[in-house]
Amino acid sequence: MIFLSTAVLSLAALASAAGVPSHSSVKRQVTQLRSKYDFVIVGGGTTGLTVADRLSAAFPKKNVLVIEYGDVHFAPGVFDPPTDWITAAPDAPPAWTFLSLPNPEMANTSAFVKVGQAVGGSSTVNGMFFDRGSRFDYDAWTEAGGKAFAKSKVKWDWQGLFPFFKKSVTFTKPDAAIAQRYKYTWDVSAYGGLGPIHSSFSSFQWADQTVLGKAWTEIGIKPAKECAGGNKEGICWVPASQHPVTAKRSHAGLGHYADVQPRANYDLLLKHQVVRVVYRNGPKSGPPLVEVKSLADGHLFNVTVTGEVVVSAGALHTPTVLQRSGIGPASVLSAAGIPLVLDLPGVGSNFQDHSGPPVTWTYTKPYTFFPLPSDMVTNATFKAETTAAFAETPARGPYTLAGGNSAIYVSLPHTTPSYQSIIAKIRQMATSGASTAFLPPDIRSDPTMAAGYASQLLALATLLSNPAAPSLETPWATAESPGTAWSFLLHPLSRGTVRLDSADHLAQPILDYRAGTNPVDFDLHLAHVRYLRKLLETPTLKGYGAVEVAPGSEVAGDDDALRAYVKQSSTLSFMHPCCTAAMMPREKGGVVGTELKVHGAEGLRVADMSVMPLVPGTHLSATAYAVGEKAADIIIQEWKKR
């Protein structure tokens, strides 16, 4: 019941703040601000609020300001009532939506991307699938950074990051009867913390969830007891970021803001856009001023900072804040008419996301599972019962499921016998210099970007050759016809860009995904699709008369035809944008070092998903919290020494 009271108080606080702020920390105009701040956090999202919470707690005599574009909103779970589980929540907080430039290598498809525009950022609107990458994903960050990162006192490999994953979350075991019913497995040693974000399993699974679960075992995938402890290959149970009693969404706006208020030194400025950081006497003269624009009246003003600025505006907005500040690729800034402060070609130039096509089928034999997602639409009585069940204490029923708890993760060596030839291609292009031709044109001639990309590819070659490091993900919650097995490419080789709109610097950035520009990505896609088609040959799916819809045996048997299918049917973004201010040495095109300080800029750090050099094989929410926890720890330790 302690859990329940905490959740109710938090939700009430946010609900009231959406109308009349209940905390004195909420500011809406410049006249409410202090004359100066020790720390300014640009962006009140998942990572930014984590940093602000920890800094304000560690230094009660230092003032912390978070500047957030959005407002405080109630954030329902991804499938809370009154939705029908199939459609999105109608009362979800506002979000930015982007359509990327058409992608020529992918049949001129545009990527659709959504990121949160509220206190809590994307943790208020995401799918609540709360997994972590494998240990090898994070070890690859250090390998890509080279000798300098390997020697650094600050480690971003698995051992360096795992304690902060644990610190960020409170995991609650499911009720014994529910665990037995669904055969949930877990290992509490992967958690062990009492963090502000809740993680738990649903009290419900769709009646046919076991169909695909059994089929995966029939193609040789083994169930894993726990996939959050660094070892991830296999069939995984994945908790959701939700409260164990209420099944309400657990997000940064609650755990790292509402639940820690009132805190006298923690201010939150809402409905304001950070235009840029301003170095009055060059980038060595920091910390910089923070130039801010009121969204209410357009008023511009500066915030004075005595300690440092932490940019945490997310993978799509952090690059534009830096670019507006004159920090970025010289050619891009020149084209936009922005005076160059610091030439860092990596700003916005290492853009990555997960993408991939589906394998789909229908069933020709009847099956009598109940309930299924379609029953939420066709059976009014059942939907009314599920709505009432969600309101109980503890909550139960379909509305506690969020986006699902099941996924498979399979390595490239277990996906295709041709994996060694794919690895050889990657190594050859990296060592020969041929990989440079696949970089975005506006940074292709920069030797640091070429060196960094080659280093990343070599790290990916090591990662993809590891039989314990997943290359493919397929999440699922049901097998209801039409059946779909999504092919998530977890480690893409292609690199896109996030660029300032040169016609309107304050407009939303221009996204160029450039998916498929490195042709080896298609080798990976083809291997993954062909592997997933094995599902249709399993006794379980044959028993239900599964008939393939796409890509079909004729297409799958021909490389060119299957490549065309991938181009035409892929989802270009599974909403995991990252890596646009990469943590790499400056001589390898990096934007920040291991302490997250912007290379060459005094008093300026970046802490969000843009700092990852390589996208890990995971949904990014849990990693965003861990990065925030580690970033805060780095800053705290440094300032304690001062």
From TrEMBL:
Organism taxonomic ancestry: Eukaryota, Fungi, Dikarya, Ascomycota, Pezizomycotina
Origin species: Staphylotrichum tortipilum
GO MF terms, alphabetically ordered: flavin adenine dinucleotide binding; oxidoreductase activity, acting on CH-OH group of donors
Transmembrane segments: none
PROSITE patterns referenced in this protein's UniProt entry, alphabetically: GMC_OXRED_2
Cofactors named for this entry: FAD
Binding site for FAD: 46-47, 274
Gene3D superfamilies hit by this protein: FAD/NAD(P)-binding domain, Glucose Oxidase, domain 3
Protein name from the UniProt record: GMC oxidoreductase
Keywords attached to this entry: FAD, Flavoprotein, Signal
Signal peptide segment: 1-17
Limits of the Glucose-methanol-choline oxidoreductase N-terminal domain: 314-328
Family affiliation: Belongs to the GMC oxidoreductase family.
Active site: 576, 619
Keyword Flavoprotein in record: yes
Keyword Zinc-finger attributed: no
UniProt record, GO biological process: secondary metabolite biosynthetic process
